[in-house]
Amino acid sequence: MTFSDLLVMLAYLTALPLLALGLAGRQTSATAYLEGHGDLPWWALCLSLVATETSTLTLISVPGIAYGSGMVFVGLALGYLIGRAIVAWKFLPLYQSGKMLSAYDWLGQRFGASMQRMASSTFLITRLLAEAVRLFAGMLPIAAMLDAAHMGLPHAVLLGGIMLVTLFYTLCGGLRAVVWSDSIQFGLYLFGSAACLALLWHAAPAGVLHTLHAAGRFDLFVIHTSPFTSSFTPLAALLGGTVLSVASHGTDQLMVQRVLAARCLRDARLALMSSAVGVGLLFALLSGVGVLVWVHHGGATLHQAGFATPDAIFPAYIVQELPSGLRGLMLAGVLAATMGSLSATLSAMTAATMGDFAAPCAWVARKLGLSGLGFARVVTLVWAGALVLCAGMFAQGSQSAVLVGLSIAACGYGPMLASFIAGMAWPGLKARTLAPAFGLSVPLMVLAMMYLHPYGKPLAFVWLIVLGMITLFGLVGLHYVIQKKNHR
């Protein structure tokens, strides 16, 4: 670690919170803290969506996956584009039709408060675990750099430090600070990734494009494998990517909170569809970094190059290969990705807690003698502590962190998406039928994630979503069959 690296990182950690708070302005109510006044421009919401969706998992894991499999994440992005179009056409009008604080307000209007709270609880639990994976993954390259400089710190200290900086601007500026900081952070790690790509391209040998093409590193899909154990076959990427995008951007509070903050339906659609293009370009950029790192290592396999997991590849390149100054900038970019998704998660979880559990929250706030804004900040602090504690659970493991995080989220995505679809397409469906089916479907998907291993490999996360939808629809249908027999 050089003085230039430290200077760049400290400059980032100092400037970002101040700039985000300056753009956000002062928050005077819980509504402003959680909703951002409803006047944020669509392009800022677009950048925030991309920054929230991609996060550290993307920055760290996508180059590692590209190292072994090529440009497969770009193929997955094609499914994302189709999915967002469906959300923009079918889901956004539901959210823009009334004043909603969370994505699950609509389920409450359709099926009652119990279903709304059940769905929100599922979001809170799965998001807590999935974001803990992100937080731990974002700490790894920082820990590696400090260790290389003989300045190693315990993981708990690093996790706490990242959380404290993030909490500073999140607590003070609310959703507006989150959106503006996301936009700045996304620009930083996009620039850093582009700089890495340029350096790798400059150092690549003559005929590198021919080498990559001959090795299949430009392939958008994995062909010779089962679609049930890989998320990157044509069927899994296009169909599964579509379903994943509809579930995440149509029913996940983490993403829906952004479009709820748009000025109007048109701006919400612009932000959503533009984010599809942005994430596709970022996937292409990071995949390009991964395949060029493969060339840099002479086409060696993961283990031949001395890496235990795919997630170790890009951090090792940052720490060992980048010049001084740029290394600090790239590590600041990793911090940016971590803090961007972390602040977005804290804001979304606070909004879901306050919106979907309004009565209990109001009772606790009265007992504590807090205003709505003060209690919202306390809720943010509670979730921050829970995230730091859970992050330690993922210290071990050989799977790519991005796939682990997506698999955890997918356990709730399938039943959640099926509930929204059933509510829109089945006017006669009642909560007494849907709620038990939902309550049983989610733990069944957790069991499927843990124990359903076709061909000896975990079920691909995109099929967990599809399986979750099929399970909920099947349980709803079974309820009607049993009910019909009992009436005879």
UniProtKB/TrEMBL annotation:
A Gene Ontology BP annotation from the UniProt entry: sodium ion transport
Keywords of the record: Cell membrane, Ion transport, Membrane, Sodium, Sodium transport, Transmembrane, Transmembrane helix, Transport
Gene Ontology cellular component terms for the protein in this record: plasma membrane
Bilayer topology: Multi-pass membrane protein
Membrane-traversing stretches: 56-82, 124-144, 156-179, 186-208, 228-249, 270-295, 329-354, 375-395, 401-422, 434-453, 459-482
Family of this protein: Belongs to the sodium:solute symporter (SSF) (TC 2.A.21) family.
Xref: PANTHER family: INTEGRAL MEMBRANE TRANSPORT PROTEIN, SODIUM-COUPLED MONOCARBOXYLATE TRANSPORTER
Protein name listed in UniProt: Sodium:proline symporter
